[in-house]
Every structure is written in structure tokens, then in C-alpha cells.
Amino acid sequence: MKVNFRLTRGYATQAFHEEMDFPLAYSIVTHHKVEDFERLLRAIYAPQNVYCVHVDTKAQATVAAAIANIASCFPNVFMVSQPVKVVYAGWTRVQADLNCMSDLLNVSTEWKYFINLCGQDFPMKTNLEMVRDLKALDGANSIQFEPIPQNQKRKVETTWALMNGHIQSTGKARGPAPFDLSVLKGSAYIIACRGYINSVLTDSRIHELIEWCKDAYSPDEILWATSQQMPGVPGSMSATSHVYHGISIARLVLWTGEGKCHGNFVRGVCVFAVADLPWILSHHHLFANKFDVESDSVAVFCLEEYLREKRLAEIESDGK
User: Fold this and answer.
1) Is the peptide bond before 185 cis (omega within 30 degrees of 0)?
2) Is there a catalytic annotation at residue 211?
3) What is the full DSSP assignment across 202-240?
4) What is the rounded CA–CA span in Å between residue 84 and residue 93?
5) pLDDT at 292
6) To pair with 27 at 20 to 30 A between CA atoms, which of 50, 55, 72, 293?
7) What H or E segment, with its residue span, contains residue 166?
8) Are 286 and 250 in contact (CB under 8 A)?
9) How far apart, in whole angstroms, are the C-alpha atoms of residue 238 and residue 225?
10) pTM across the whole model
11) Would you list the DSSP string of 48-106?
12) pLDDT tens column, 145-201
């Protein structure tokens, strides 16, 4: 049954030597929409990569079971060992990725780069294209960062806590960041070299920053961006000063006010429609967010076909 699922759904079974020599590690955090998750997994699946799947503990039991059953069909896809209840803008969103990072380091010593996703992301490039883009980073991370806008500094300067199921401000002032770091803002979604992920879990300086971030609003938008300043952290700004990291290739998002969305906005993010595809494919990112087959299945289907045609062209080119 497991082999039949992989074959009937068209999962990749082979890879080029270039891909085999450069495996990737993924963390996928999700809590609903099983079909979106399965289409994402199929689009990014390669036999040499490893995939950690985190299903929110508050997800419906049927959703968790369905995703676990899908993961069980693959030797290199596994459920996170310690799932958590993810709260929007809270620390547990970071903890979910940290738990997957730890598991991914334990299950494989081979992978080169880490990419974290949510269940409604979708790739804009084939695995081979991603490998070549990541090789071009030459060991650097691709993590978005920018100074915190003045109108958002309250999110960092005061403490936040879980109250009645939501993150709310306590009104209490927070102390300065450790080591006189300038607090930066970025995306929760990153591309990071293996050395950086190992440092996140073992470097006492980053651990201190982690503790400081825990009572901030959306610590996932602070931790990765701010840790990039630390001297000696693999792939960081100081380690790879020849690479500009401010604009990340990790993820393309269309926020309210940034352009026309042909789909609809959810929490300020465009859920793409098929008419958004030309705009999406004009960008250089590896992934785009958000997609929802219930909102516009054609958008996902067209991207699937686009990537399939590119993969076939890669195979044909390799055979010449």
C-alpha cells in the first residue's frame, strides 16, 4: 500500500548526482488542510532529502492521523518527536521548528541546508534549481532582516503572555537584548546552513537570546533575524560578509497594500488565485505563500504542471 501510494501519487523516485550530493532538510508545520499538505510534500519530495512534519497538538484527530499515515509511506518523512500546541504570534511557533531542527540533526548527518515551511506553502522551483541556488549561497544563510519599524517597537519593548488562548501584552517593559544586540525583524521562514541550525541548538549565546525572545510578540520574526549578527555563527552576516542577507530567497508573500491580490486576504496575506501566477513566477524565491486548494485548486494544479514540465526538461537535458 505504501509503495502504491508513492507511485500512484507521482512522488519522485530518482535524483541527479548533483542532488544526491546536496540533500536538504525540511520542517513542515501544519494543523489542517490535509490535501494542501500532501500536495506540498509531493512537490518538494526527493528520496535524498529528509522531512520533519509537525502537526499542532490542537489539530483535529482525523487530520493528525491522516498526515501521520501519509508520512509513514516514506522512509525519509517522519513526525516530530515532540509536538506542541502552536499559538499565533507566540513562542510555541518557534518551539515547533526547534523540535524539528533537533530531530533532523539526529536522523541524518548528510543534509546541507534547512528550510522551514507551513502547510500552505508551495515551491516555485524544482529540487535541482533549489540545490543550485543554495550552492550559490556558498555556506551563507538566507534570512530576512530589517530594523524594527517604529510603529512595531511596542511588540519588542513590552512583554507578552498567553491569556485566554491568545498572546496579549502585559504592559510590562522588557530589558535590552543580550550582548547589546540590535533587535532586528525578519520572517519566520528561513533558509539556513546545517552549521547555523546546530548553533541554534548548542550555542550558549543563542540560547540566551532564545530565552530573551520567549516573551516577545512573534519571537519567530525576531530570533532568526537578530541571531544573524552574532560573530562566529555559521552562515551569519559576520561569517559571510560578502553575501547580502537582508532580502531572503526563502519565501514570497503578498501582504495587504503591497499589490493586487486576485484571491483573498487572510490575516493580511494573499491566498493566491491562478491569476496571481505570472506575478509569483516573476520572482526569484524558492517558495510562495499562501495557497489553498479549497479557494483555488487551479492555482496549485498549474504550479504542479509547471514544475513537472521543468523536471521533465531537466531529465531530458541530462540524458543528452
Assistant:
1) no
2) no
3) H-HHHHHHHHHHTTSSSGGGTHHHHHTTSTT-TTSTTT-
4) 9
5) 97
6) 293
7) strand 166-173
8) yes
9) 13
10) 0.95
11) TSEEEEEE-TTS-HHHHHHHHHHHTT-TTEEE-SS-----TTSTHHHHHHHHHHHHHHH
12) 888 988 888 888 999 999 998 999 999 999 999 999 989 999 999 999 999 999 999
What span, in angstroms and rounded, lies between the C-alpha atoms of 116 and 45? 14
For each successive 10 residues of the chain (320 residues), what is the average pLDDT?
Answer: 84 96 98 97 98 97 97 97 96 97 97 98 98 96 90 90 92 93 92 97 97 95 92 77 62 96 96 98 97 96 97 85
Report the number of distinct structural domains present in the chain. 1
The cell 498549474 sits on which residue?
Answer: 302
Quick one: cell of 155?
511588540
Candidates 38, 146, 208, 221; catalytic one = 221
Q: In 3-state terms, what secondary structure has residue 45?
A: coil
Torsion angle, CA of 150/143/289/33, rounded to 10 degrees? -110
Domain that holds residue 242: 2-318
Contacts of 291 (CB under 8 A, 6+ apart): 36, 120, 121, 122, 271, 272, 299, 300, 303
Q: ∠ at Cα 197 (196, 202), nearest 5°? A: 95
Q: How many CB atoms lie within 10 A of CB 257?
A: 7
How large is the angle between the packed helices 194-202 and 204-213, nearest 10 degrees?
Answer: 70
- Report the C-alpha gap between 270 and 259 in whole angstroms: 10
Q: Are 22 and 135 in contact (CB under 8 A)?
A: yes
